[in-house]
Amino acid sequence: MYKKGITIIILSSLLLLTSCFEIVEEVSFNEDGSGHVTLTLNLSRSKTKLNSIKLLDSINDYKVPTEAEIKHHFAEVTNTIKKTKGISNMTNSLNFEEYIYTISCDFTSVEVLNMIISNFSSKSESEKIKEYKHFGFNKDQHTFTRNYHYDLAKEFNKTKMADRKIFENATVTTIYRFTDPIIASKNTTAKISKNKKAIFLKINAQDIITNKNSIKNQIQLQD
Amino acid sequence: MKKLLFLISLCTSFMGVAQNLESKIPSNAETVISVNGNRLLELMSIDEFENLDITKELFKEVSEGKDSTAKISSLKDFGIDINSKVYYFYQTTDSIIYHSFLYKLNDKNLFEKSLVKSDEEIVRKNNMNISTKSSSVTIWNDDMLLLTAGDATFRYFQNYEERFLKQAENEDESLYSIQDRIQGGWIYDHGVAIFNGKESNSILKNNNYVKRKDDKAAATFWINNYGELIHNTMKYSLTSLFLNPNMEAKKIGYGIDGMWGSIYLDDTEARITADMEINDEWKKIYKNMYNSKIGNEFLNYFNQDKVLAYTSMSFNMEGVLQEYPAIVSNVYGGMMPQYKEETDVVAEVISVLLDEEAIGNVITGNMLFVLNDIVERETTYSTYEYDDNYNRTEVTKTKTEPIPDFTVMIGSKNKKLLNKLIRLGAKHELVGSKGNYYILKEKTDIPVDIFFAIKDDIAFFTSSEKQMMDILSNKVTSNSGKHKKMIRNNISTIYVNGKQLMHKLPDSAFSKREIKMFNFAKENLTDAYFTTSRMKGNKIHLEMKMDTPIQHGNSLKFFLDLIELSIK
Fold it and tell me: How far is CA A172 from the centre of its chain?
């Protein structure tokens, strides 16, 4: 009881720390539309808080997963991706000290990426993904499109107040690299690299959730 | 009637005193809660209460459920006497739990107009107006309103299934619907009996209840027998499936018989008190377990000017271990009498294996945890930097984070053994020596170093190296002030210096939504205490006290201001 009291006091002061995380989506395309994708979830800025959460059984009514459970879940995810036709050279890393999780692989076309997202979605969501392709690469028109169909503001409003705090300082970054130079991009927040072959977009999760901005973009490449 | 329940749950605060109302509470009530309207009206006028957003919301809720002609704009519109006490009481039988509320009415017509639905069927007989539902009954006359709700246990109906199935109105009637119908009848009879109750059978004839009453309190509660209350409630809960129905009421509830308490709302403080009466069987156990006192040597290292919060605990480890078999036997044996022998044996074996005195020497049972400060500490994190072509490089950056600085003192009389343990720890590189103190080398997830040392029969653990050096060189200013009594005279004390603590927390720790509450807390919070006294006679006294700022008028207004702010 006493020990619990002490733990609660120490933990509650640590749990007041802000949560912060970044998601980085990095895709490098080859000329034929195949490429390499790396998805990174970096929670390192919140590691003190996560270390404290680890000592709890649950937080905001959610069970706190153990390292083994995270590993198991991660393995399930990577296995599903691995099994997708068109995926190769799959690698992944779990850094429990810094709380950085990465998955990367080669793909034969963007349709494979759409298939992966569809595989992790419900049936009705999968249907929508077929319609609103999350990734589009049109070789004839030399365009690349990043899209999604979710109404994140609506989903966000369904969440509990305590959960919303998590997104206050989170960011989402997308980096796309092409063999041809980029001429234009529809999302005005995106920045084109010096060599014109990469495009970078970093957005606060809060802006995505409130529909102020998004990672949606249409990129025009040179013929 | 749904609105009535809503009103009762929200508006219990402003109802008042009437002896005849209290006399309707039956003598077998297991729990009685009262809210003293008189006291609340002394603290806040009706106008002030009606101007609160929550009150306006309540009026709107009730009005919306009514015809457009019956708009509620004042507390008086409910027809309930706001200068009277309101009572809640709880009763159980072997088959049903009853919850009842009693109010004084001063305008029956207004009550009916505001809270009774126009299509609601009201039976008017024997000077009673009765509205029934399957699980509740509402009865009122010109002076009094009673709401009784009941919840029968399905297990009881299952136990006597054959008997109840015979009472089915048709072949298809299930046991559930039989229960629903029969329970409705029980609740009706019960409500009418309370409404027409005679003073001779009233709780006011129970001296144990009468002598615990305190009319100066804003609210009071009284439990006739805590063990029985838990016992009876357990019988109705899911837990009952795993428990023996013959479990002994006296054995569970940790020996607490009567329990009563009050809420006091004054100009600059709010206080909740509770007293527990310990039965003879447990009295000896408690005496032995808490036969200890935090020594003055702990207070040599306590400076009230450098405390954001603390908790103290004083029990006699040797006594706890000696009483352990009795506790196990009483609690678990009481809950599961069919396994009493087994639980007794297990407890006894543990007792044989443990050397109570030796353990009691290593950890005496006296502990003091002090949150000294919240400091900004630099921590590192990994993030990314990008070159002109957005190639990513992982880099390490630093940031500052608020980290608690704390000291834990644990009483120990066996320095020799502790030193042996430390040497063993050092051998296995779990601890590092820093001269006359040590550092925990085993990496913990919390980003604080833990320093420890043994001095004056106390094992010190602290996150601050400076604090450790001050302890060892007697540089800690001993200044326990008002806390000395609280720490020494109670089994346990929890104290929070709200003002200091709030000022130490960074704004960044709160979301935009939380920041207004945080700022309110920063401006207004002061000291808060929770103490558990030593047993005096056969009573243990618990008290929770919070100082409230005078600029709000009084503690009631302070809490209502806080609630108003939280819902905005």
Answer: 7
B280-298 residue pLDDT tens: 888 888 888 888 889 889 9
How close, in Å, is residue A166 to chain B by CA atoms? 9
Three-point CA angle B409, B411, B412, nearest 5°: 125
Distance (Å, rounded) from C-alpha B6 to C-alpha A67?
A: 46
Q: How far out from the chain centre does Cα A149 lie? A: 15
Q: How many cross-chain Cβ pairs, A to B, lie less than 8 Å apart?
A: 98
Q: Any CB–CB contact under 8 A between A200 and chain B? A: yes
Residues B196 and B139: their CA atoms lie apart, in Å, by 10
Task: List all residues of chain A from 166 to 185 with a beta carbon under 8 Å from chain B.
Answer: 168, 173, 175, 177
Q: Does A3 touch chain B (CB under 8 A)?
A: no
Please judge whether A193 and B402 are an interchain contact, meaning their C-beta atoms are less than 8 angstroms apart: no
Instruction: Using CA coordinates, name the residue in chain A closest to B397.
Output: A45
The answer to whether the CB atoms of A98 and B381 lie below 8 A apart is: yes
- Taking the CA of residue A111 and the nearest CA in chain B, the distance in Å comes to 25
Cα–Cα distance, B227 to B280 (Å, whole number): 13
DSSP state of B100: E
By CA distance, what is A192's nearest residue in B?
B389
> pLDDT digits over B389-429, tens only?
999 999 999 988 888 889 999 988 877 788 888 888 888 87
How far, in Å, CA of B209 to CA of B215, rounded?
13
Q: State pLDDT tens for residues B552-568.
A: 899 999 999 888 887 77
Q: For the whole prediction, is pTM greater than 0.95?
A: no
Give mean pLDDT in consecutive 10-residue pieces for chain A, a chain of 223 residues.
47 60 93 93 88 76 83 89 93 92 94 88 78 86 88 74 74 94 94 95 88 91 88
